[in-house]
Amino acid sequence: MVIDVACCLWFKVTSFLTYQKCLAKAVSKWRPCRVTTTTQQFLLKEYLASYPPELFVLFGNAHDSYRYTLQEHAMNVRTLADMFDIYLSPKTKLIWTSKPAEYVAKKPDILKGRIYENGTMDIKQWLTAANKIHFRELRERFVNNGRPLMFLDLYGMSEPVLGDWNIDGVHMQPAWYKHIISQIVQIVCTV
Question: In the chain, which stretches have pLDDT less than 50?
């Protein structure tokens, strides 16, 4: 299995541009852009409809911590999971990952003391709570779904090696990401 980065980048750019053109037409002609209203709906319902993927990997990220409360995060996870159930083929293998840990000591000074969830949590507490919500919202799908599913715990895989592998407080060394992809390939190839 070879992962083509250029293809992934092309996919992101062309998907975004196609969606933007569709939205521009909708605004200029006062008509809806088919029936999709979000980027996720466009990608799942329209872009991938002709060529449904055999494998879909969704990586959790910490950028949500800056944008959403935990309640909003739970709603977003539920909504996206529902979209997968509706728009992806039942044969598509789906891998969800948790959000990886962050290393506050390496963050820029402006971000080191940042408080989340209306001033009640630091980043470690927020990520831990968000990952629990993530799994809680998906648990039923793992138990009662015919779709091949897997939940990969990136927080648990990243926290012990933050001091050695973390670059800037959030991102890891490229070798760590290669290890994660290797893990995914080994799991998928044995299923």
Answer: 1-17, 19, 22-23, 25-34
What is the pLDDT at residue 169?
92
- Angle, in degrees to the nearest 10, between helices 123-143 and 70-87: 30
| Pair (99, 170) in one structural domain | yes
For residues 46 and 34, is the Cβ–Cβ distance under 8 A?
A: yes
| Distance (Å, whole) CA 111 – CA 33 | 38
Within this chain, do residues 101 and 182 fall inside the same structural domain, yes or no? yes
Q: How far apart are CA 48 and CA 178, in angstroms?
A: 26
C-alpha span between 120 and 56 (Å, rounded): 34
- Could you tell me which residues are beta bridge partners of residue 93? 55
Provide the 10 A C-beta neighbour count for residue 38: 13
- Domain containing 121 equals 53-190
Q: What angle do CA 141, 127, 75 make, to 5 degrees?
A: 45
Q: Dihedral, CA atoms, 55, 70, 105, 99, nearest 10 degrees?
A: -10
Task: Retrieve residue 90's tokens.
Answer: 């039942």
List the one residue out of 153, 150, 132 whose CA is nearest residue 95.
150
CATH code of the domain covering residue 135: 3.40.50.1110
